Amino acid sequence: MKPTNKTLLIIIIIFSALLYLSFTFHNTLSPDEGYYAWQARQIYENPFGFLDAFGDYDVIVPGVIAVFDVFLPSEFAARLVGVLFGLLGVYLMYLLGKELKNKNLGLISALFLAINPWYWMLACRILLDVPLTVMGMLNVFLLVKFYKTKEIKFLIYSIIAFLGVLFTKSVGILFLTINIFMIIATYYPFKKINKRNLFVSIIVSMIAITIPFLLYFQNIIYFFKRYINFERIQGNYLVINNIYNILFGYIPDQLFLLFYLLTIIFIAFLIYLLIKKNKQRWIYLMLLMWIASVFGFRLFFGGHQIVRYVISGLPAIILLVVIVLYEAYELIKKKYKFKKLKKHIIILENYLILEIENYGIK
After folding, report:
1. 142, 156 in Cβ contact below 8 A?
2. For residue 232, what pLDDT is reported?
3. Mean of the per-residue pLDDT values of the chain
4. Cα→Cα distances 273→53, 114, 127, 200, 276, Å
5. Model confidence pTM above 0.90
């Protein structure tokens, strides 16, 4: 019996939980983790005096830990909260993929996020970056619901979620551009066919695609110099040396050139989709705006090579790649008509059987 989407989602979440928990409690808290655990203890002991004493408004994560501190030891509570945020992110990824396309795409996107080495590595730690990513995903999900339903309640929920993003980590202000874009797109749909919409779409796309490559431009030049000289490229798994490391964690040196060539094809097909897929144009623009917001922020404030500082853009990258590949698959299937091809194969097979029988071969 074919498993249902709900069953597959439960399997993905259980697998994620086992993966994250197996790496969670082996090490002592890092200095940053210790600071957040200490903040949680201060909230637990003095909830109303916390802000006045420390002037720190990143209170969502320490506040949640403080609740768990009632029942569990501080260190255990802190790490467990990190894992729970990570699992919530996997579930929200499924919901986003489902809303943007369909359930199958939601499952694929959730799986890719769950096994992404950067994501689960950070989900095993009590840092603010995965919770920021998860709250940002919740904010975007509610914005998508608002766009599709036009119900004001989802706009109110999305505003509340955006406040949650800000109180998770102040750098979450970068999600403001996505909120503005989605509200504008709701009342001024980009699916209308006119030159202005098409021009805006392509400009936004080029900016979003260009920013990450500008950030890692020196690494690209460095790669080609080493590639031409047949020298091995040295990397550090703790930092991002190029845009592809965000998705895959590590890429063998021999595959870099192939990935750059595939990127050119990917960008060309994305532009094709922006031109042809009028009703779905808002999806690509929203995801591109998300990517541009995260990496554009780092373009001005630095830190783009530290994975935790750009992890909030990972869901958008995964969704964009999965959706574009899905559209490519649908286009190829439609163009080459695999069903007709299957019929021709069956006819040919029957013909060969008859010929074999005519010659008396059994």
Report:
1. no
2. 39
3. 76
4. 52, 27, 37, 14, 5
5. no
Q: Decide if 295 contacts 310 (C-beta within 8 A).
A: yes
| Tokens representing residue 254 in the block | 């021999």
On the question of pLDDT at 78 being above 70, the answer is yes
pLDDT band for 141, please (50, 70, 90 cuts). very high
| Spatial CA neighbour of 282 closest among 96, 158, 94, 100 | 100
The answer for residues whose C-beta is within 8 angstroms of residue 52's C-beta and 6 or more apart is none
* 54-58 CB contacts, 8 Å cutoff, 24+ apart: 57/166, 57/167, 57/170, 58/128, 58/167, 58/168, 58/169, 58/170
Q: Which tokens in the block code for residue 167?
A: 């109180």
- Between the two ends of the chain, the Cα-to-Cα distance in Å is 36
3-state helix/strand/coil string of the chain: CCCCHHHHHHHHHHHHHHHHHHCCCCCCCCHHHHHHHHHHHHHHHCCCCHHHHHCCCCCHHHHHHHHHHCCCCHHHHHHHHHHHHHHHHHHHHHHHHHHHCCHHHHHHHHHHHHHCHHHHHHHCCCCCHHHHHHHHHHHHHHHHHHHHHCCHHHHHHHHHHHHHHHHHCHHHHHHHHHHHHHHHHHHCCCCCCCHHHHHHHHHHHHHHHHHHHHHCHHHHHHHHHHHHCCCCCCCCCCECCCHHHHHHCCCCHHHHHHHHHHHHHHHHHHHHHHHHCCCCHHHHHHHHHHHHHHHHHHHHHCCCCEHHHHHHHHHHHHHHHHHHHHHHHHHHHHHHCHHHHHHHHHHHHHHHHHHHHHCCCC
Q: Which residue is associated with the tokens 């994250």?
A: 20
The residue with tokens 């993929």 is 97
CA distances for 279 relative to 68, 104, 285, angstroms? 45, 20, 12
Cβ contact 19:118 at 8 Å? no
**What is the mean pLDDT of the segment spanning 122-146?**
91
For residues 65 and 337, what is the distance between their CA atoms, to the nearest angstrom? 54
Task: Kindly state the tokens that stand for 83.
Answer: 């894992």
